[in-house]
Design brief:
- The chain is α/β, with parallel strands linked by helices.
- Helices cover 48% and strands 14% of the residues.
- It contains nine helices and five strands.
- Helix 3 packs parallel to helix 4 and helix 6 packs across helix 9.
- The protein is elongated, with a radius of gyration of 19 Å.
């Protein structure tokens, strides 16, 4: 029987997943916790086959950050991230952190169990590209402009963005102007509000 560490901060969802995993007869849930920052500690105790973890957990701790720690310390432990938030950058960030698989919470239990089995057996399960939301292509934003907009949505100031990328503040100001010109928004803040409320970007979990 395969061992699963479950990390989910919403009690109702966590309890439902715990019961479904146990009732399936396929999995043993070693621990069921709400805080991704504690995942490494629990892995030390039982060394599960797979960590099933929400991206956003208790006290705003990030499952993506926890994934990077897990894969650094326990590279053989599989990690499957899950979320109900439609943000395009989650998938890219999950891959970079080393997550083996990624699912949205609208999948059925059968689909979830199939994805867990596939992941434990060495496959990588990610949503099809067509299922992802992305910032509209007709804006023709460059990669750097998208990166800067993401930081704006994360609450970074112009100076902080400049420091982050090693740019001058005037260069960042030029990027802001280009973003507003391409999208038609009168201010960078209104563009950021549009990006977040439309579901194209969710502010990074810190």
């Amino acid at each position: 029987m395969k061992k699963i560490l479950l990390v989910e901060d919403q009690a109702l969802v966590r309890d439902a997943l715990f019961r479904a995993l146990i009732d399936s007869g396929q999995f043993e849930v070693t621990h069921s916790i709400a805080d991704s920052s504690l995942a490494v500690r629990y892995i030390q105790d039982t060394l599960p086959d797979l960590v099933l973890m929400d991206i956003s957990t208790l006290d705003h701790h990030s499952g993506i950050d926890a994934t990077a720690d897990i894969k650094r310390l326990y590279p053989d432990v599989k990690v499957m991230l899950m979320t109900g938030l439609p943000e395009v950058t989650f998938i890219e960030r999950a891959r970079k952190a080393g997550a083996d698989s990624f699912v949205y919470k609208d999948v059925s239990m059968t689909q979830l169990f199939e994805a867990i089995d596939a992941t434990i057996n060495g496959q990588s399960v990610y949503p099809h590209e067509s299922a992802q939301q992305s910032f509209p292509d007709y804006f023709n934003l460059t990669d750097r402009e998208r990166e800067i907009l993401l930081l704006v949505c994360d609450g970074y100031t112009r100076l902080e963005i400049a420091d982050h990328f090693g740019l001058t503040e005037n260069t960042v100001k030029t990027h802001f102007s280009n973003l507003m010109s391409k999208t038609g928004f009168p201010s960078i803040s209104k563009l950021a509000i549009y990006a977040v409320t439309s579901g194209f970007i969710n502010p990074k979990i810190k």
